[in-house]
Amino acid sequence: MKKILALALAAAMSLSLAACGGNNNGGNSAASNPPAASNPSNSSTDPGKEENKPAIRVGAIYITSQNDVAGYTFQHHNGITTAMRNLGLDPADLIVVDNVPDNDDTAVANAIDTVVNQGADIVFGISFGYINAMNDKAEDYSDVIFSHGTGYMANDTNFNNYFGRIYQARYLTGIAAGMKSLELGNNSIGYVAAYNTDYAETCSGINAFALGVQSANPDAVVHVNVINAWGDEALERQAAQALINTYNCCVISQHCDSAQPQLVAAENNVFGCGYNSDMTEQAPTAHLTAAIWHWDVYYQTAIQAAIDCNGDASKFVENMSGNAYYAGLAEGFVDASPLNESIAAPNTKAVMDAVRDLMISGQWDVFSGQKLSYVIKEDGAVEVHTEPADLVDNQGNVIVAAGGPSVDDGVIKGSMNYNVAGVQEG
Amino acid sequence: MEQQYAIEMRGICKSFGSVAANKDINLTVKPGEILALLGENGSGKTTLMNMLSGIYKPDSGMILVDGREVAINSPEDAKKLGIGMVHQHFKLVDVFSAADNIWLGDDKSGPVLKKDRFQVIGDMAKRFGFDIDPRKKVYNMAVSEKQTLEIVKVLYYGAQIIILDEPTAVLTVQETAKLFDVLRRMKESGHAIIIITHKLNEVLEISDRVAILRKGEYITTVDTATTDEQQLTEYMVGRKVKLNIDRPVVEKTRPLLEIRDLTIKNDEGALAIDKVNFYIRGGEILGVAGIAGCGQKELCEAIAGLRPIESGMMIHKGDNIVGLSPKAILEKGISMSFIPEDRLGMGLAPSMSITDNMLLKKYDQAKGPFVDRKTGREEAKQVVQDLEIVTPSTETPVRRLSGGNVQKVLLGREIKAGPNVIVTAYPVRGLDINSSYAIYDILNRQKKDGVGILFVGEDLDVMMDLCDKIMVLCHGRVMGVVHAHKTSKEELGLMMTGALDLTNKYEDKPAGIAKDSRIEEVEE
Amino acid sequence: MKSQQPLFHVIKREDSRPAQQLLAYVAAVVLALAVGAVLLAVQGVEPLTFYRQMITMGIPGSRYPWRAVENFIKLFVPLLIVSLALSLAFKMRFWNIGGEGQFIMGAFWAGVAGMLLGESLPQPVMVLAMALCGALGGGVYGVFVAALKVKWGTNETLLTLMLNYVALYFLQYFAETKAGWNFFLDPQSARPKFAKFPDNAQMITIPIGPFNLNLSLIVALVLCALIFGYLNYTKRGYEIAVVGDSPNTARYAGMKVGKIVIRTIFLSAALIGMAGALHVSSAGVMSASPTNDVGWTGIVVAWLAKLNTLGILLASVLITVLQFGCQTASSSYPSIDANFANLLQGVILFLVLAADFFTRFKLVLRSRKEAAR
What is the predicted ipTM? Predict the structure, then answer.
């Protein structure tokens, strides 16, 4: 908008100044967008007056608009408002600066200052790139709590970070994909990835999904197509189509923002596993299940902990029992979305439920020296067998020896930088 | 019963903002008549005619065509009413042939370019006695051909009333005569013709009646047979004007500037000036005549150091100035002022004040990093006083001034710098008679002071009165240098078109020596 | 007969008076605020409260008011310097649309200096070095286009525009490429992220109570005065005006137009680059998109101010208040997101520019009699 205006002005300026001799001159033009029809809010609170002071003021810095109806910011905004409602806070009191780019620290710092100045007691920053500013401001404002999603920085008082074991949910979706490929007799499965081994977050997702696939169909291969962007609808679409064309993939999984890969799967009469939200609605004939977050679980915990500080922000980390929140299936922070049973392979739900229970119980985790296999009985009941096996990367290196413990630290601390056997990039 | 007028305009008013361009104008033309619309620049002639051709709408007043009141809302309407206008700036598509230019503007012809269009249009042109090749592309045409094409176009669309806006401005004497023949033929065939001009001799030659406008007001209409130049001028200017231009006799010095075998290319890389030789002495005005675009601009720019030359020498007081920077040439006392068509393009900074424009060539002489505006303001005041420049203040941007005052500022500054050679191109372009005479006076004063002046002009009558000698250029070549008081317009016209080349007569003279082809006696 | 005459003509005014112009601006702002009020009311927001917060930028009664002022200065300084620098180029009718790119290059080279030398030099020297590196980086980036224009007559608008994107992706390459040689990035982070500058490469601030006065504000204000003098009183400024007004006249007056263009554009781009340097130094860390659109907004400011130096000072203050105030005010309303704030800014700017148009031109309606026909 501003760019267009500026360009139009420059053009008008060159015209008007150049044509100083003439007596008639054309006008200048600038486009103005019609006002976007956004949902009218029922809020009538006046932030200028503090009539009945809420227990706590919550602030947030978003990467895109708070009025989004899908995508990353939407998920978090939804989580925060749900948590506030559950805690008896009015979501209209949320203080938000949105459309804050995550690659401009000045803008982020400015946004944080604004939110704090407006009275926020706890500030959530949802994008990784806010990390420097969050860290600085946590030091600056010791009376305010800072909580940073997907980051790794923290202190011992008022600053933590939060993320989750989404790989557990991905393992579950991998089971659905693997069973479908077994049913179809096609061992080729595709994965549209934002990045691969550049980030532990992305390669752990790929690996967990692949391990899930292999638990159901040991012969399956996961082909990864990297788009080098967290979200780009055109690229996502291309990548999914390329996987189907090149490898004849029968299931398309994804780690990227939009539902495009699922739509492509539907168009090609193959199947898919989504991410972030239940995409069955968008692609009912293709979408099996999605790895999803329940952000409200964290936000509710965090806001409650902040309330419990009673104004002493430095107690926040203590109240959260640590400065890095990293929950999973057990806490209900992540999950696989309800299975689309009309298209899933028979018994998939039973297997997923059994494995979910196993992970919730804490007896087993994905990146360990134990491998799962399933026996389905005549009555549909499922037996999950664990047997020791090496966790091997696709270069043949043993990561965890057979029977060894889980290495989920590699995910939390960001050191995972390999693909497990059975994953092929390209 | 009165005779039916082809066009009658009654009480026409038109203003642009607060400026009234036309005030209560009445005008009539009969079929088979040539009406000259006479007035100085800015007197509202073109505005008035643009209302006939549908470009403007009158604020009030009525227009009658063949006795019927009409509203002309667009050029389309004008066309339907049989009114055609030939504008000063031609409206032709360069890459199309003559016939296609006509064909494409015609409603009747339809979307298909029929094969017989060349035949149809060629025949039609011949009927009126025009000599055009319907297949010739416009970009290959000379100016006079383009004008002819515009007239043919208007006739082809069935115009009974034809308006020509300053048609002779771009033509040589011979071409003008040809045009007048065409106009007379059209008149005989019953067309009504309005010709806009400010050249008195042409008015007297071609028109039946003359309507005169002055500053947007209608003065009168007179029968051409009963009037003369003096009377027309008085109508036009509003008071008695001395029509003679002085040519003071001054003792001439040695050549101040001598040009030898000068060759210059234009922006397109073609030869603009081709082996030109001439000289200017102090105390004389050398006129340069020629059709527009035959190298005048390039010559002026080369002398001022603004344009690289291909070969030749330019000797100023014994020093070759070829290759010197514009600044160095300036410092030698050679002043150049070129008034282009938009008047402000070279020599002045239009958005800046008179003071700032005074400083243009000497701002750098002040000591220190700052501009010395105090001196500039004093000089501006002096020039404003000396040359009677009409301006609210010396801080007024130059573009706010009227044309005559702009040119006075330009010349005033040049003279202030005390040059010994003045190169001036079109200094009276667009000026009214009074301002023009003021400029001639300024030049003559300089001439008396021993300055050598190169005067690039348009109006042959003026040049024959003002200049001592006239050099004629044709396509960048010198056709000859003649004494202004001994030559005739016909001779100059023939030289301008290249039909007469007087240089050949003196082919035996050694190259590189300035030569006056028509000057019999050696004056030194 | 059918009427084909348009309903009105646009005619240039020759007689616009400053008072009239001011009145038109005020009317435009009032109208824009009224339009905004309707939009706000539709969103369920009380317009007066919103506007009060916008104009005060939420400073009164806030927890850390001085921090808001500091942030205001951080937004204001780059905009002021860039607008001033652009006015130099625009006065010469050199349409430098490349403010974004020059700003980025300035920020980049200042960052190089900060990261490589920050440990070894004392703070004042370091900050000066960063400003100089930024100026040089931006200046060279801009003068490249000027040189091409002088030499081959290329179109500066297109080139500067395209170089904006070159600079942006150039910087993003460094922002996103994790490698041993990439000294910009924080080695601790698994994901690529810029490391903070060493302490000595941080902008100097002068503490006044709890408020830290950013030195760059003083620099910007001094620059403002210097540029005012430069344009209006020096020979160089005179040359710029003449070249801008009529290059032919300038050449005719013996000015070396090419040299003047190159010198002025270098100056313009160097100032923009320096603004980038001051900006990253104030931020204390590199950024992959450091400009906050100042390269574009600067054009708007320069236009509003009609290239008048004092006008630029005023217009930059107003635009920054608008930007900063909109963000602050909208943060409290769930229905008002940044897009709406941008929209509101757009409406205000658009109407002010429309007012500007009507002070320069006027519409002449077709008379009723004619329209009736």
Answer: 0.84
